[in-house]
């Protein structure tokens, strides 16, 4: 006669024991060296603004930042969320990798965290050098600011869920901005648009159903997040049609505001000791004989 398994005999005990396993941080803090924040602070104290541009509500703009420059995303009129994409300015196949950034730093990023590029490059594209919303932390709902959880609002999901075509979702906005920069049509470049850093967005997961939620962003005029460019960057920023994302997105219902992008040139002598990141040195043989 076959003996019943432990799970069949007492499933609640087996389930409880397995759920009681202790968690382990996948990539513990200190596993890799962090950026030299003292050097960045010295560089930013001597920087001069060289360029700025305005991103209109429910629209996007592309911009370029040279390696060693700083750039800011600034709230200027009212609470507004922005969706940020970054590419290697000389190679669009290297782009911001939100998933790995989330795994290395957490669901929300802040000062000292880095925005990492996709494989096979896997290097820091930009380092967060300042954030006026760093005080927020995590609130009673478990929400934080600047998330790398959400993908970006897009017309495909909107059509799927609502049955309507809406052309000013962040995916479409970013596609238009990139197309304008590259002098191409949006449909020809939208495959380069990727999961974003949700700048100023306040998000988390519900405690009961663990669903992704958003709530009113605490950003106010004058607040900004600042980045140090580790490589030459092409960026695009969308002023989300959800406004402060307190209730809705992908519609014309929310109050929306412009965002400003500012670019700064530091005193380059302050960066003479900085180590510029190279693409990953992994040999890419992936276990084949060529790698032996």
Write the layout of secondary structure elements.
Blueprint: H1 6-9, H2 11-19, H3 37-45, E1 48-55, E2 60-65, E3 70-75, E4 82-88, E5 91-95, H4 98-105, E6 114-116, E7 124-131, E8 144-147, H5 155-162, H6 170-182, H7 186-189, E9 197-205, E10 212-215, E11 224-229, E12 233-239, E13 259-265
Antiparallel strand pairs: 1-13, 2-12, 3-11, 3-13, 4-5, 4-9, 4-12, 6-7, 7-11, 8-9, 9-10
* Span of the ends, CA to CA: 51 Å
Tally of helical runs: 7
Largest sheet: 7 strands, antiparallel
Structural class: alpha+beta
**Share of helix among residues?**
10-25%
In total, how many beta strands? 13
Question: Which residues form runs of ≥5 with pLDDT under 50?
Answer: none
Mean pLDDT: 94
* β-sheet strand percentage: 25-35%
Q: What global shape is seen?
A: globular
What is the string of SSEs from the N terminus onward? HHHEEEEEHEEEHHHEEEEE
Would you write up a description of this structure?
The mean pLDDT is 94. Strands 2, 4, 5, 8, 9, 10 and 12 form a seven-stranded antiparallel beta sheet that branches. A six-stranded antiparallel beta sheet has the order 1-13-3-11-7-6. It contains seven helices and 13 strands. The protein has 292 residues and is of the alpha+beta class. It has helices spanning 6-9, 11-19, 37-45, 98-105, 155-162, 170-182, 186-189; strands spanning 48-55, 60-65, 70-75, 82-88, 91-95, 114-116, 124-131, 144-147, 197-205, 212-215, 224-229, 233-239, 259-265. The longest helix is centred in the middle third of the chain and has 13 residues, at 170-182.
């Amino acid at each position: 006669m076959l003996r019943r398994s432990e799970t069949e005999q007492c499933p609640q005990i087996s389930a409880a024991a397995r759920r009681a396993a202790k968690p382990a941080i996948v990539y513990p803090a200190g596993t890799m060296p962090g950026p030299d924040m003292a050097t960045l602070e010295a560089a930013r104290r001597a920087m001069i603004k060289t360029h700025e541009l305005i991103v209109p509500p429910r629209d996007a703009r592309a911009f370029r930042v040279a390696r060693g420059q700083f750039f800011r995303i600034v709230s200027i009129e009212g609470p507004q969320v922005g969706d940020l994409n970054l590419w290697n300015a000389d190679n669009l196949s290297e782009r911001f990798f939100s998933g790995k950034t989330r795994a290395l730093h957490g669901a929300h990023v802040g000062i000292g965290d880095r925005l990492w590029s996709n494989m096979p490059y896997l290097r820091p594209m930009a380092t967060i050098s300042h954030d006026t919303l760093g005080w927020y932390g995590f609130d009673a709902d478990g929400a934080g600011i600047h998330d790398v959880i959400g993908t970006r609002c897009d017309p495909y999901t909107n059509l799927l869920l609502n049955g309507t075509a809406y052309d000013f979702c962040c995916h479409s906005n970013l596609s238009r901005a990139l197309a304008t920069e590259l002098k191409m049509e949006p449909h020809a470049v939208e495959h380069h648009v990727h999961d974003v850093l949700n700048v100023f967005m306040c998000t988390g997961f519900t405690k009961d159903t663990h669903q992704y939620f958003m709530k009113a962003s605490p950003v106010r005029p004058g607040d900004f997040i600042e980045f140090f460019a580790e490589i030459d960057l092409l960026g695009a920023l969308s002023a989300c049609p959800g406004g402060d994302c307190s209730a809705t997105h992908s519609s014309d219902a929310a109050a929306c505001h412009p965002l400003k992008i500012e670019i700064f040139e530091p005193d380059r002598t302050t960066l003479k000791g900085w180590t510029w990141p190279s693409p990953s040195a992994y040999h890419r043989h992936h276990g084949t004989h060529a790698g032996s």
